[in-house]
Amino acid sequence: MNKQPILALAPMAGISDWPMRTLCVEQGCNYTTTEMVSAQGFLTAPSTLNVYKYLLAIGPAEPPPVVQIFGRRPELMSEAAKRLSDTGLFSGVDINMGCPAQKVTGGGAGSALMRDLPLCAEIISAVRKATPLPVSVKMRLGWDEAHITAPELARIAQECGADLLTVHGRTRSQQYSGHADWEQIASVKSTVRIPVLCNGDVNSAQSCLEALRVTGCDGVAIGRGALGNPFVFAQIQAALKHEPAIIPDDDQIVATAIRHGTMMLEWKGERAAVLEMRKHLCWYIHGKRGAAQLRTRITALDTMEAVFSLLREFAELQKNVDKPCGS
Ligand SMILES: Cc1cc2nc3c(=O)[nH]c(=O)nc-3n(C[C@H](O)[C@H](O)[C@H](O)COP(=O)(O)O)c2cc1C
Question: What are the distances in angstroms from CA 161 to CA 131, 134, 242?
Fold first, then answer.
């Protein structure tokens, strides 16, 4: 592949907000998506309800993300796409056809749509007509192993005017278990002309190069591999240029986590920011010396100063560990 691959941060509810997207873009991520937003909820929420203000917030220094919507009624999906596009804040509209959560599939949305391809066609066509922005579709391989509908859905999406597809190489019944099947993503890719992003278990430069090779995809979407690790994008960019691997040192990890916390604090205020940062802290220190010990204290953190001081303690701990005995 000669073109620069798309290196996307996969949409993740409660995670891929603007501070996370900003940090990933700084490291070389070149495609971001908001977390999923209910089309119906967005259209019917009273203006006093500020949950959408948060779900759709854009950072001061990030490029416009794609906005992801979910739902099953074409008229609501298209109206939401239109109104969101009219804000001028987003670079595209992504349709969620992959979410496996019961609260989404129970209402017939997310991956449940993969069992009703004519309805998928209606939704994609309606959204296509409603927005001048690029339209994309995020899907799984199918509902279960006996119903692999991704190649057919990909063909339909292309016909209905979609500009890009992201394919997570698992079925709905697999949830997040087992391994993403990149071979099956390759067969989806070979069905269509529009760009396809390979998603599932891409979490390092090595796995990214392998996924691109196996699938022939135009890029990858990285979800869990970016948790506490926005550096994965810089590592991939280096590998694509055949440059030496960039391993972040402990000071860089701490500085990044502190910036993450600072953005959260400015955006959400102390209480919400501390709650949000607890999970990110666990991810930032994952696998490091003393992490288990520090993790037990993270759930009790209640001020941002306590968050920062735990991070400084973490940095000291790593330095002391590295010192030879007696020094
Ligand atoms: C906590 C969490 C939240 C997620 N939220 C969304 C979402 O809002 N929309 C979506 O399309 N996929 C969502 N996903 C799925 C991811 O985008 C991605 O498809 C999946 O995690 C597989 O990629 P990975 O192996 O790189 O994590 C979520 C995944 C996780 C772990």
Answer: 11, 9, 36
Q: Give domain 6-240's CATH superfamily.
A: Aldolase class I (3.20.20.70)
Q: Number of C-alpha atoms within 13 angstroms, CB side, residue 258?
A: 16
Output the CATH code of domain 250-322.
1.10.1200.80
Residues 65-98: pLDDT tens digits?
Answer: 999 999 999 999 999 999 999 999 999 999 999 9
Q: To the nearest whole percent, how much of the chain has pLDDT over 70?
A: 96
What is the gyration radius of the CA atoms in the chain, in angstroms?
20
CA of 135 to the centre of ligand 1 (A): 19
325: annotated active-site residue: no
**Residue among 7, 9, 12, 164 to mutate when testing ligand 1 (max atoms within 8 A of CB):** 12
Residues of the chain with CATH 3.20.20.70: 6-240
Q: Which has the closest alpha carbon to 168: 134, 135, 142, 203?
A: 142
H or E element at residue 95: strand 92-97
d(CA 194, CA 213): 18
Per-position b or e across 177-214, b if 16+ CB within 10 A of its CB: eeebbbebbbbbbebbebbbbbbbbbbbbebbbebbee
Amino acid residing at 195: P
Query: What would the pLDDT profile of 284-305 be if each residue is shown by its tens digit?
Result: 999 998 898 888 999 899 999 9
